[in-house]
Amino acid sequence: MSSHKPDYDHLLRTNIERVFGERDAAKRDKVIAEIYTAEPVLLEPTDIVQGRDNISKTVDKLLEQFGPDFAFMPVGQANGHHGLAHLAWHAGPKNGPVVVTGVDVAEIVDGRIARLWVLLDPPV
């Protein structure tokens, strides 16, 4: 086992800001290649998405569904150890109210995201 501790905050924050926040697919795909393993899995409440390309397509659909002013924002810092990390986030129109909150939980393998669970908070 490597003694190198991954930068959990960087990985999960980059995922929120530059994957789920990136509308340009080519830019997003480059970041996905940097921070995800070769065969990552995204586990959403209603779907399981396998592979980098399919994750990018899922983000495309999500951003298209919510419109051009919708943004995901990290809340606080990611915390993790022994290959498991989490980061809270909220989302909504850039200058509007928060419409959804949640937590990303990631399994980190060799410094990259191998599996990412998107956990949505219940509506208030």
Automatic annotation (TrEMBL):
Domain (SnoaL-like): residue spans on this chain: 27-115
Membrane-spanning segments: none
Cross-referenced InterPro entries: NTF2-like_dom_sf, SnoaL-like
Name of this chain's protein: Nuclear transport factor 2 family protein
Organism of this sequence: Tardiphaga alba
